[in-house]
Amino acid sequence: MGGDSLSSHAHVIGWGKYLPQRVLKNGELSELVDTSDEWIRTRTGIRERHLVEDGETTADMAVQAARQALEVAHFNPTQVELIIVATVTPDHLFPSTACLVQDMLGATRAAAFDLSAGCTGFIYGLSVAANMLLSGAYRSALVIGAETLSSITDWTDRATCVLFGDGAGAVVLQSGENEGGVLASSLGSDGSGGDLLWLPAGGSRIPTSQRTLDERLHFIQMKGREVFRFAVKVMHDATCEVLEKAGHALGDLTLLIPHQANQRIIEAAARSLDLSPEMVYSNVEWYGNTSAASIPIALSEAAEKGRIQTGDLVVCVGFGAGLTWGAAAIRWTRPQPMLAPLRRRIVRRLYYSLARIRSRFRRLIRWLSAFGIKDGLNGGRRSKE
b/e string for 260-291 if b means 16 or more Cβ within 10 A? Predict the structure, then answer.
C-alpha cells in the first residue's frame, strides 16, 4: 500500500500492551532443561519471559491490551468498526478470537476476524486494516497481536523453550485527512520454507491422534540457523523497501521497531542497515519472543517511554512462520495522551461490566429461542400423531 493514493490516512491514535503477571526467569528454566542463565543470555539476549496463569487465554490478554489502547485513544468500544486479531494461538479454531474480543469489549458495531501470519501477523493485520480505512470501507480499526505461546512450547526442548513468552499488544487506527499515519507497508511470503518454523500436527494434514501426542508434534519446531539467516536478510530488505514505497530514505528514519525474536538477530539486522543501537528498539531481554504480540508490545512501550514523538518516522518490521515477512512505515501524529478524567474512566469500566451482562443476556435469549423452537417442533409432531 502507498499513502498517496487517497486523501484519507490511517492514523495510530491509541496503543496498549498486556503482559501476564507470572515471570519465568532463566534460572528457573535451568531446572527444567540442561541450560543456564549465561547460555540463554549469550545466545538470545533474553533474561525472562511472562507466562499466562491457569485459565488465562489469548482472548483475555487481547482484551486487556485493547482496553488500554482504547483508553489512550479516548475511544469507546462502540466506535470501533473493525477488529483484527493476529495470532497463532487462538482460544479455539473457531469461533475466532477476534469475535471473543468483540463480545468482551462490547464493540457492538465491529466486524471481527483472526489473521495468521506467524510472528509477522501484526504487520499483516496493520496493513489490512490501514488499507480498509484508506478505501473508505471503515473509519476505525483495532489491530491486536496476542499469543499464548506457552501452550505450544515443548518445555523439554532446550532449543525452543528458552525463547518464547506470552503477551498482547494493540493499536487503534482512525482515518483522517491530515498527513501521516501508516504511510506504506510491504509484505512477503515464501511457503517453501514452511518447515523451518512450524507446528506439525493438529490441522487437517496431520490430525490429532495418540501418535501425534506421543511424538510431541503439537509443539513448536524450529531450525534455528536457517531462520537466523532468513530473518536478518528479510528485515534489511523489507525495511529498505517500505521506506522507498513511503518516499523516504534510511536517513529519514527515527526509530526501527523489529520483531523481538532474538537480540543477536536484532543486532545483525541493525548492522546490515548501518543503524546505531539508539535507533533500534529492543525489549526482548524482558519478554522473550511473543510472536505476533512482540511488535505491538514494543511499539506501545516505546510510545509510553517517550521514545516516539509527534512527527517521528517509525518502521515496524518482522518475520515469521510461513515463511512470512513485512514492514510498515508510520509517521507518528499522536501526541502523548492526557489521562482521561476520573468520571470517564469510571464510565468506561461500567461499560465493560455491562458488556459482560449483555453477552450473558444474549446467550439466555438465544437459549430461550432455541428452547421455544424445539418445543414448537415437538408440539407439531404430537399434533400430527
Answer: bbbbbbbbbbbeebebeeeebbbbbebbbbbb
Domain extents in the chain: 9-331, 342-385
65 near 296, Cβ under 8 Å?
Answer: yes
- The residue annotated as part of the active site, out of 26, 240, 259, 262, is 259
Type of residue numbered 70: L
C-alpha cell at 40: 540463554
Partner residues linked to 146 by β-bridges: 168
Report the C-alpha gap between 54 and 189 in whole angstroms: 35
This prediction has a pTM of 0.93
Q: Is-catalytic flag, 316?
A: no
- Residue range 131-163, pLDDT digits in tens: 999 999 999 999 999 999 999 999 999 999 999
With a CB cutoff of 8 Å and minimum separation 6, the contacts of 136 are: 6, 8, 175
Overall size of the chain counted in residues: 385
Query: Per the omega criterion (within 30 degrees of 0), is the bond before 377 cis?
Result: no
Q: Give the CATH class of 9-331.
A: alpha beta
Per annotation, catalytic residue among 119, 161, 240, 316: 119
Of the chain, the end-to-end C-alpha distance in Å amounts to 65
